[in-house]
Design brief:
With about 325 residues, the chain is α/β, with parallel strands linked by helices. It has 8 helices and 13 strands. It has a domain of about 220 residues: Vaccinia Virus protein VP39 (Rossmann fold). The strands form 4 sheets. Strands 7-6-5-8-9-13-12 form a 7-stranded mixed beta sheet, with helices on both faces. Strands 1-4 form a two-stranded parallel sheet.
Length: about 325
């Protein structure tokens, strides 16, 4: 990516002391330092609790024929997040508008996948940079924004961007990323507003005691001016995909203007035991939801779904694979 990825602090675990040299989780027989047997080899030594006492012979530096190859000493090390800009003054001045700084996590459990920057988000960001005129002066709502990366790109042209997701820690990360890149916001725009939007709930949270809740002014602006909705790489779980499409349908009824939703998805292929074949079940479910949305007609709304060709330039650094797909449902 054409930005400065900021990894969260990590602690590396030191190598085990006293190891015989076997890989973790792997045993060895015969080779290495033998267990110390008791007198005349009749029994192994036990500690005061009756447990087997494993005694390893330290290798002398002068050992002419060591059993295992020498190992480098490994010390624990904590990687601290940088407090100061690593760019020099000249580089910082010349590249201010070319660098996006994103705090994110390289690997997470499934429930925290929003803290990673996914390829589909970079793909969507490239499209936003290519179609800047489409977003000029608009009000944009991003669903499942994760780190806020796509919302930041949208804010380079849009009037206002509502960057939404769930989880106070994730939304706080969004807020920090937006502050890091505030210089990229379109001049005269309303910037990026981080708000909670839970797809499993019908209404927006307006409790002022809840972090990232909505004010009445926010809600009025959202429903009165939003014309573009964004979502990238949020179609990995069937239940969440269903919830997102219900949210799209609900929002479309509440928005005063016709809107376009731009959805970015990576078609992931997996071998499944149930099919004994390579399938892409999450993507298939996503396509089924699109078809249902297109068929919905309640007298007030009609949805049209159009694919988007990936023929636009690539300005960010990532692997643009053919499994990256765009669709545009619109009302």
């Amino acid at each position: 990516m054409g930005g400065d990825h900021r990894d969260v602090p990590r602690e590396e675990t030191p190598a085990r002391t006293g190891s015989t040299g076997s890989p973790p989780g792997r045993g060895h027989s015969g080779a290495g330092f033998p267990l110390q047997a008791g007198q005349e080899g009749t029994g192994a030594q036990l500690d005061e609790d009756g447990d087997l006492d494993v005694v390893r012979r330290p290798r002398a530096a002068s050992d002419p024929d060591p059993v295992w190859p020498p190992r480098d000493k490994v010390h624990p090390m904590i990687l601290a997040q940088e407090e100061e800009d690593v760019l020099g003054d000249e580089a910082r001045e010349s590249s201010t508008h070319n660098i996006i700084k994103i705090e994110h996590t390289m690997a997470t459990p499934l429930e925290d996948v929003g803290k990673q920057v996914w390829r589909g988000a970079l793909f969507l960001a490239d499209y936003l940079l290519f179609q800047r005129d489409l977003f000029q002066g608009r009000t944009v709502l991003e669903l499942g924004a994760g780190t806020g990366f796509t919302s930041i790109i949208a804010a380079t042209a849009a009037q206002t961007v509502y960057c939404t997701d769930v989880g106070a820690d994730l939304l706080a990360m969004c807020q920090r990323n937006i502050a890091l890149n505030s210089h990229l916001t379109a001049p005269g725009g309303g910037g990026v507003k981080v708000r909670e939007l839970d797809w499993l709930k019908d209404d927006l949270c307006t409790d002022p005691e809840v972090p990232f809740s909505w004010s009445e002014e926010d809600i009025s602006d959202l429903y009165g001016h939003t014309t573009i909705l964004l979502a990238a790489e949020v179609f990995y779980d069937d239940d969440l995909t269903d919830a997102l499409f219900k949210t799209l349908f609900r929002l479309a009824h509440r928005l005063k203007n016709a809107c376009t939703a731009i959805l970015s998805v990576e078609k992931r292929l997996n071998f499944t035991l149930s099919h004994l074949d390579v399938t892409c079940e999450a993507y298939d479910h996503f396509r089924a939801c699109l078809r249902q949305l297109e068929q919905l007609q309640d007298g007030q709304l009609r949805f049209a779904v159009e694919p988007v060709e990936a023929a636009f330039p690539q300005r960010l650094e990532y692997e643009r694979i053919r499994q990256l797909i765009f669709v545009e449902p619109g009302t």
